[in-house]
Design goal:
Number of helices: 13
EC number: 4.4.1.14
Distance between the termini: 74 Å
Subunit structure: Homodimer.
Radius of gyration: 26 Å
Protein name: 1-aminocyclopropane-1-carboxylate synthase
Catalytic activity: S-adenosyl-L-methionine = 1-aminocyclopropane-1-carboxylate + S-methyl-5'-thioadenosine + H(+)
Strand order of the largest sheet: 1-7-6-5-4-2-3
Number of strands: 11
Pathway: Alkene biosynthesis; ethylene biosynthesis via S-adenosyl-L-methionine; ethylene from S-adenosyl-L-methionine: step 1/2
Helix content: 40-55%
Largest sheet: 7 strands, mixed
Strand content: 5-15%
Length: 437
C-alpha cells in the first residue's frame, strides 16, 4: 500500500499504531474531553466513571524521603537506594525495563485481562511484543500454570523469543491481589524458563480489604530463585494521588539492569525540584500513614456503595479489594456472546448512558461482556447520578429484550400452527397418497 507524502516524511515509529490510542480504552476519555460532565453546568455530559483522579483531601503539610514499594515494606530505606532507578511515571519505568531486558521482536507474556496501556508502554518504541496468557471467569481469572505453559508453548511454536512475564499486582482491571501460592508459582515458572519477571505494583497501597497485598520481593525471600530475573515497577500516581508529578521507579535485583536503567533515565528524568518536594513530603511518617489509612477507608466505602448499587439492578462484579475500579459483568446484556456484540453494547453505554467504561476486549479479555468502570473519581452525588443512569439503561434493555422474546415467541407459535395445519392428516387432500381410500 502506497504511503502518503506525510507518512513518507516520518519514521516507522511515528506512523505505526502501536501507541495503542486507537482503542475503546482511550475513546471513552475522548468522549469525556468533548463533553465533560458537570453537576451544574453540564449534567447531561459524558465521562462519569473512568478519569482517574481521587476526590480525596489535598496533600499538605509535608516534611522528609521514602519510596512506596509495597504495603508491607511501604517505603524503601536509604540502604536500598542502590537498586532504585527513577523515571517519568510507571509508563517510563516499564519502558525502561523493556529496553534493558529485550530486543525488538522479543516477547513478554502478560496475564489477561491486562492493563491496556502495557501495549504502548512496553512495545511501541521498544519493538517488544506482548503475548496474552488467557485467564477466564471459570476460576475468577486466576493465573494458572497451565495457562502460562500454553502461552509459552504457542510462542515457541511461532518462533518467538520469550524474554519474560509482566504482571500487575494488584491487578488492573480486576482489582484483585495475587495470593502467595500464585506468586510462588509465577516465580517458579520464570525460574524454570530462565526468563524475567516484571511486577508492576502501582496499586500496592490501594488495598482496602482482605486479603492483603504481597509483594514479589517478599516471595523471593521465601524460596530459591535467580534474583537477577526479578524487577519491580512502582509510581506515586495511584496510591498517593500524584499522577501529574510523573514519578515512577524501577527496583531491580539485577545490577546490570540498574546500571543500564540509570543511563537510560536521562530520557525521562524527574526534576530535582520534584524530588526535593517529594522527599520532604514522604518522610513525614505520620502524614503518610494517615493518608494511606484514609485512602483505604474511603476506597472501601465507595466500592461498597457502587457495587451494592449495581447489585440492586442485578449487575454483579468480580469480587475485588484493591484499586480504583471494578470488573463489571454485563454478559447478560449482550445480544450475542461475541466481541462485536460487546462493542455494540459499549457504544450504547458511551453514547446513551454517557458513562465512561472500558470494554473487556481492550484489556485482551478472552470472554466478551466484561467491562471496567472506575468508582474512585467521583463524589457521592455523582456516583448516584452514574448509578441512576445505569439503572435506567438496564431497564430499557430489559424491556427491549422482553419485547423481542415475546415477538419471537409469537412468531414461533404462528409458524408452528401453520406447519401443523399443513402436516395434519385431517387437512390433506383425498387424492394424497398418504390417505387411505
Amino acid at each position: 500500500m502506497a504511503l502518503s507524502k506525510n507518512q513518507q516524511l516520518l519514521s516507522k515509529i511515528a506512523t505505526n499504531d502501536r501507541h495503542g490510542e486507537n482503542s475503546p480504552y482511550f475513546d471513552g476519555w475522548k468522549a469525556y474531553d468533548n463533553n465533560p460532565y458537570h453537576p451544574i453546568d453540564n449534567s447531561d455530559g459524558s465521562g462519569l466513571g473512568e478519569i482517574l483522579k481521587l476526590p480525596f483531601a489535598p496533600l499538605k503539610e509535608f516534611t522528609n524521603s521514602r519510596i512506596l514499594l509495597s504495603s508491607r515494606t511501604i517505603m524503601a530505606s536509604r540502604s536500598l537506594d542502590k537498586r532504585i532507578v527513577m523515571s517519568g511515571g510507571a509508563t517510563g519505568a516499564n519502558e525502561t525495563v523493556m529496553f534493558c531486558l529485550a530486543n525488538p521482536g522479543d516477547a513478554f507474556l502478560v496475564p489477561s485481562p491486562c492493563y491496556p496501556a502495557f501495549d504502548r508502554d512496553c512495545g511501541w518504541r521498544t519493538g517488544v511484543q506482548l503475548i496474552p496468557v488467557n485467564c477466564d471467569s471459570s476460576n475468577n481469572f486466576l493465573i494458572t500454570k497451565a495457562a502460562l505453559e500454553a502461552a509459552y508453548e504457542r510462542a515457541q511454536q511461532d518462533n518467538i523469543n520469550v524474554k519474560g512475564l509482566i504482571i500487575a499486582n494488584p491487578s488492573n482491571p480486576l482489582g484483585t491481589v495475587l495470593d502467595r501460592d500464585t506468586l510462588r508459582s509465577l516465580v517458579s515458572f520464570i525460574n524454570e524458563k530462565k526468563i524475567h519477571l516484571v511486577s508492576d505494583e502501582i496499586y500496592a497501597a490501594s488495598v482496602f480489604s482482605s486479603p492483603s497485598f504481597i509483594s514479589v520481593s517478599e516471595i523471593i525471600e521465601e524460596m530459591e530463585c535467580d534474583r537477577d530475573l526479578i524487577h519491580i515497577v512502582y509510581s506515586l500516581s495511584k496510591d498517593m494521588g500524584l499522577p501529574g508529578f510523573r514519578v515512577g521507579i524501577v527496583y531491580s535485583f539485577n545490577d546490570a539492569v540498574v546500571n543500564c536503567g540509570r543511563k537510560m533515565s536521562s530520557f525521562g528524568l524527574v526534576s530535582s525540584q520534584t524530588q526535593h518536594l517529594l522527599a520532604s513530603m514522604l518522610s513525614d511518617d505520620e502524614f503518610v500513614d494517615n493518608f494511606l489509612k484514609e485512602n483505604s477507608e474511603r476506597l472501601a466505602k465507595r466500592h461498597s456503595l457502587f457495587t451494592k448499587g449495581l447489585e440492586k439492578m442485578g449487575i454483579t462484579c468480580l469480587k475485588s479489594n484493591a484499586g480504583l475500579f471494578v470488573w463489571m459483568d454485563l454478559r447478560r446484556l449482550l445480544k450475542e456472546p461475541t466481541f462485536e456484540s460487546e462493542m455494540t453494547l459499549w457504544r450504547l453505554i458511551i453514547n446513551e448512558v454517557k458513562l465512561n467504561v472500558s470494554p473487556g476486549s481492550s484489556f485482551h479479555c478472552s470472554e466478551p461482556g466484561w467491562f471496567r468502570v472506575c468508582f474512585a473519581n467521583m463524589d457521592d452525588d455523582t456516583v448516584e447520578v452514574a448509578l441512576e443512569r445505569i439503572r435506567v439503561f438496564v431497564e430499557k434493555q430489559q424491556v427491549k429484550s422482553k419485547r423481542k422474546f415475546q415477538s419471537n415467541l409469537k412468531l414461533s407459535f404462528t409458524s408452528r400452527r401453520y406447519d401443523e395445519s399443513v402436516m395434519s392428516p385431517h387437512m390433506m387432500s383425498p387424492r394424497s397418497p398418504l390417505v387411505r381410500a
